[in-house]
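Tokens for chain A. Residues wanted.
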């Protein structure tokens, strides 16, 4: 089953628009190789929100599945209740709590492979949370034309306030000096 998932991911990455024969040739001319990192970088630049959601969702699902698979033999041998990490729901819960660094401590992996997966999940989760923060920041970032429009609006409003203040000063001066 894992080989099928890996084959599917490899197919999408190796036979995409950024890794076909022409792209590989073009990237070689620019001095680097077209591969998985280049494809992920391009997808993160062209569509950061969708890419971040895909990466986070697939990471959560794959790590939850791995954790529940490797914890199931322990719960069968030791007779642990069904709400432990051996179910997909329990693994899903543990992965979310570990990735977001909440860590309530109510569930924990018991096998050494499960504990290793939990450690990888914690490290990978901190990386994914930083990607989500950067993606959210880039969504709210202004492009060049929006920045120019904002600056123009600010300057015209500032000039208008200056003119209004000058007119108020002029009328106040005229009113109090004539008395």
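Reply:
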């Amino acid at each position: 089953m894992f080989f099928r998932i890996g084959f599917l991911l490899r197919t999408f990455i190796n036979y995409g628009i950024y890794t076909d024969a022409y792209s590989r040739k073009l990237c070689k001319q620019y001095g680097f190789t077209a591969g998985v990192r280049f494809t992920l970088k391009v997808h993160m630049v062209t569509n950061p929100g969708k890419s971040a959601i895909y990466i986070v969702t697939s990471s959560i699902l794959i790590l939850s599945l791995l954790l529940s698979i490797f914890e199931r033999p322990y719960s069968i041998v030791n007779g642990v209740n069904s709400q432990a990490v051996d179910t997909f729901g329990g693994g899903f819960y543990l992965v979310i709590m570990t990735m977001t660094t909440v860590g309530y401590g109510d569930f924990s992996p018991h096998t050494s492979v499960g504990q290793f997966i939990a450690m990888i999940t914690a490290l990978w989760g901190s990386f994914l949370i930083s990607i989500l923060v950067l993606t959210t920041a880039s969504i709210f970032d202004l492009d060049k034309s929006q920045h120019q429009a904002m600056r123009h609006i600010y300057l015209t409003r500032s000039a208008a306030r200056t003119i209004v203040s000058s007119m108020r000063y002029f009328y106040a001066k005229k009113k109090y000096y004539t008395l």
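The chain has a mean pLDDT of 85. The chain has three domains: 1-46, 49-141, 144-179.
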